[in-house]
Specification:
Number of strands: 0
Largest sheet: none
CATH class: Mainly Alpha
CATH architecture: Up-down Bundle
Radius of gyration: 15 Å
Helix content: 55-70%
Shape: elongated
Bound molecules: fe (ii) ion
CATH superfamily: Hemerythrin-like
Order of helices and strands: HHHH
Length: 134
């Protein structure tokens, strides 16, 4: 069973970003699965993938925010850096006895809260993308 599930409450209304958020959620769910299975090679592989994917996603998102003049772009970017730092901490401690689930809980909570609260805050700055009909 997936840990996090994307739903409309996470939608920012821009297809490119919504799809990337779904992919990130999938990756976090895969990390969760690897932890449950105590599968370190899988964990390591997925974490690497998550690091690369989140780097690319944050870069894309920040470039979009900058291009539409979102006033909190810098601050928003700093929040992304928090996730990256925690992800690296997780990767570093993966093979030790450190409390992995605690770090992982931070990552999964961070992601859903960030999308639902921080990302949705920039919706008014995005161009109208109402493709759902009235
Ligand atoms: Fe974001």
């Amino acid at each position: 069973m997936p840990l996090i599930q994307w739903d409309e409450t996470m939608a920012v209304g821009m297809e490119e970003l919504d799809e990337q958020h779904m992919e990130l959620i999938d990756l976090i769910n895969e990390v969760y699965e690897a932890i449950q299975r105590h599968d370190e090679p899988m964990m390591s592989r997925i974490l690497e993938k998550t690091r690369n994917y989140s780097d690319a996603h944050f870069e894309t998102e920040e470039a979009i925010l900058r291009s539409y003049g979102y006033p909190k772009t810098e601050e928003h970017g700093e929040q992304h850096r928090t996730f990256t730092a925690k992800l690296d901490e997780f990767k570093r401690n993966m093979h030790t006895t450190a409390n992995l689930s605690q770090v992982f809980i931070f990552l999964s909570r961070w992601l859903s809260n960030h999308i639902m609260n921080e990302d949705r805050e920039f919706i008014p700055w995005l161009p109208e993308t109402n493709d759902e009909g009235a």
